[in-house]
Amino acid sequence: MSTPRDTADQDRVLIFDTTLRDGEQSPGATMTHAEKLEIAQLLDEMGVDIIEAGFPIASEGDFEAVRAIADLAQQASICGLARANPTDIDRAWEAVRPARRPRIHTFIGTSPLHREITKLSQDAMVARIHDTVTHARNLCEDVQWSPMDATRTERDYLCRVVETAIKAGATTINIPDTVGYTYPRESAEIIAMLRERVPGADEVIFATHCHNDLGMATANALAAVEAGARQVECTINGLGERAGNTALEEVVMALKVRNDILPWRTRVDSRKITNISRLVAAVSGFPVQFNKAVVGKNAFAHESGIHQDGMLKNAETFEIMRPEDVGLTATNLVMGKHSGRAALRAKLSELGYELGDNQLKDVFVRFKALADRKKEVYDDDLIALMQDSAAQAADDHLELRRLRVICGTDGPQEAELSLRIDAQDRSIDATGDGPVDATFNAIRMLFPHDAKLELYQVHAVTGGTDAQATVSVRLEQDGRVYSGQSSDTDTVVASAKAYINALNRLVTAQTRGNAGALINKVG
Ligand code: KIV
Ligand code: ZN
């Protein structure tokens, strides 16, 4: 069996994607089983080397997802996370075992702050690392070990724990900057120090895992690569707790565009980046900021006259990478109500969506409905429509059947709402302070719940008064966050559908017993 370790060569950097584990830990980014599989499939297809598919002990849902991803992956190693105890490690092994290339990733917090929490002396922790890595290695030949909060761990002790893990059989040593505290020079120094001082360092791959609290996650990761790290841990769109993780698209494109000074390559097909970025944004409910590097809506937009003029003469004047290198189609051909099914299929394929006949049939109906309400349908409208379809699941408990709102300057607004709740239609009238408030009140009356509305956000997909609105909603219950998103030319309808979408996720998580996923919070 070949592991990434066998295939790694000195000019190759392995890409370890943790969107489905560290990314999914962002409050509200919880994904459904089907969504996780769809993302894993794309990661595998685009050439990611290792997919960290989840934290199997965290919940039954996490376990099932990791196991299903282990079954489906063709190329990538499938990794499951485990704390430093045999129960976690056994559970992770059970989940990743069916994979062509299984990997166990086990970790323990090694900094003084973490040692205080686990109440382990330095010696006791070394013994625990030895035992748990040995246990993992007896199960699986590919074992990754991480000293959590490595960048705030005393350097001598860091060398000691890394040496222990290597001796016990770890094949990859990951150095996490768990709280996004390090700085590029320091990030490089730590890797260089470990490679120089730790016996057996030549036998393993060093990985870098950075968080973005000070906005330096990508810079820190690349500095670690310069110092000899050969695995970068990252997420799509930089998704992750707090300020997120190193963004996969930034690392891949930096290595490609600046190959003159960063002479390392990855196996990732960068043309698939835009597509997966959109999927992750849609299913996580975390829209990509407009000016986000590589995948932001404005990353290739040129507004100012000087820039536009330069671009027309020679695109290289203001563009260091071509839109098509990240899978962004150069055209924005307008579709309308006379566009046929073949044109829609071709357009969607250009945007990175390959649909089967049945799926195309459904999407075509929704496209026609949109084109009836909106004269010109732009790329962004179609992307919103596809994201809306992705957000609906076949096993949804609640469905919007009808909504009518009565607005006026003189009085409370009124919403007449019908919902289908577990195959039963129910209707109610409610009032509120504005049409959205009245609609949300009606939903709460028809489907009482304790979840609190944490976020309500609207943005226009395109320009014009007939533009679609994309609404994001975040609900919180018992410390867990559920997000929903929807788009419609009617902002109130989009709001109702986004709220219902978040409720569906809440109900699904509760039915699947995912409530235990809170233990997932590991940095
Ligand atoms: O940030 C971190 O320390 C982690 C570890 C579990 C690797 O995500
Ligand atoms: Zn992390």
What's the layout of helices and strands?
Layout: H1 4-7, E1 14-17, H2 33-46, E2 50-54, H3 60-72, E3 77-83, H4 86-96, E4 102-109, H5 112-118, H6 122-139, E5 143-148, H7 155-168, E6 172-177, H8 184-197, E7 205-210, H9 217-226, E8 231-234, H10 248-257, H11 273-284, H12 305-313, H13 341-350, H14 357-373, H15 379-391, E9 398-406, E10 413-421, E11 424-432, H16 435-446, E12 452-460, E13 469-477, E14 480-488, H17 491-511
Parallel strand pairs: 1-2, 1-8, 2-3, 3-4, 4-5, 5-6, 6-7, 7-8
Antiparallel strand pairs: 9-10, 10-11, 12-13, 13-14
What does this structure look like?
A hairpin with an 8-residue loop joins strand 12 and strand 13. The protein has four domains: 14-284, TIM Barrel, CATH 3.20.20.70; 300-326, no CATH class; 327-391; 398-511, Alpha-isopropylmalate synthase LeuA, regulatory domain (Double Stranded RNA Binding Domain, 2-Layer Sandwich). The chain has helices spanning 4-7, 33-46, 60-72, 86-96, 112-118, 122-139, 155-168, 184-197, 217-226, 248-257, 273-284, 305-313, 341-350, 357-373, 379-391, 435-446, 491-511, and strands at 14-17, 50-54, 77-83, 102-109, 143-148, 172-177, 205-210, 231-234, 398-406, 413-421, 424-432, 452-460, 469-477, 480-488. An eight-stranded parallel barrel has the order 1-2-3-4-5-6-7-8, surrounded by eight helices. A three-stranded antiparallel β-sheet has the order 9-10-11. A three-stranded antiparallel β-sheet has the order 12-13-14. Helix content is 40%, strand content 19%. The structure holds 3-methyl-2-oxobutanoic acid and zinc ion. Zinc ion is lined by residues 22, 176, 178, 209, 211, 523.
